[in-house]
Amino acid sequence: MTALHREWNLLSHGSAILPSHGREHNLSLVLQTLLTQGALSRAALSRATGLTRVTVSELVAELLHRSHVIEVGQQGGKRPGKPATLVDLNRPGLRIIGVDLSGILPSKAAIMDLDGTLIETFTLTGHNPEAAGEQATKQLLELLDLALSNCSEPVLGIGIGTPGIVTDQGIIINAEKFDWQDFDLRTTVQEATNIPTHVLNDADCAILAEHTFGAGSEHMILLSLGRGVGCGVITHNTLVRGSGFAAGELGHVRYDLTDQTPCRCGNVGCLQARASVPAIRQAIAQGLSREQAGQQAAAALASAIAPLISVLDIRNVLFTGEPEVVHHDMAHWLLEALKERTATAMAANFTLNISENPENLVLRGTAVNVLFHQLGIS
Questions:
Q1: pTM of the full predicted structure?
Q2: In angstroms, how far is the first alpha carbon of the chain from the final one?
Q3: Pairing of the two strands 220-225 and 229-235
């Protein structure tokens, strides 16, 4: 199986599974090839995809009609006969609107191109960071309206990255931050905007961004620190979501039964109460040094994820979150704590790195999610 074919498995969960054959599969194959290789002639597309030239010509004609691809000029170089016309994804003519609801700071929206590049970002003036329920939904729709009103190109889709447990249908089973329970966020946004909308957990968005645009690999974990503690997992280029869509929900794991630190969920000893950004800030406010608070959080995080790393034999860990907490010292403390708990972390090819662009990671992951669901590519 080629690397290109393996990538199609990335988001194969729930009902969003690419067909293994047929016309839509071939259309996705052409689009995926253009995404990864850039503008190509029809003959080059035929060679790259293994499809006949006649089939490729038919597929390109349909994609031109859908405005998913465009012709971008003639192939350079001296060749006998008429120069070939190049086709590419409609990068200048289609946009994606992404929304990141994960942060401690105000929620952020962005207009992005098909490569996940941020063109313009937006936040709401007078945003209430403690908004919940209907007020949180209203603020989200206002933020989307602001982004859409500033977008002059057609929008391929809206992507939303949110804390909490999210089904493959975009229903929020539980998002503690916004007091959303069994809330159909996808339908709510689609009906308000009349634009296809796709909702995914924020940590899952982040790991998709790293896998597609960053330093990811076919077996990886992304650990995210914010108001809570999140984790995304990819194995064999497949995003792991779990039977109840709660894979990676680390925040309320009791990593140490002797820890009696109260958590806002009502329990005690939750990882979130020890290792989230607010928890680390509180520890420092209560008298611990930056190093002591960081090492305490790193030990808690390592206790929670070491079994996961060992069981799945993960050698690539990415660490992301608020820069005041997720810094190189913290990464060092976490790596040392992992080495104390699992031999996997001592392997020569084990890496633990900080994400290079944490501020926009979730936003770019929402673009990956939209590209998959709307064009069948990742």
A1: 0.86
A2: 16
A3: antiparallel
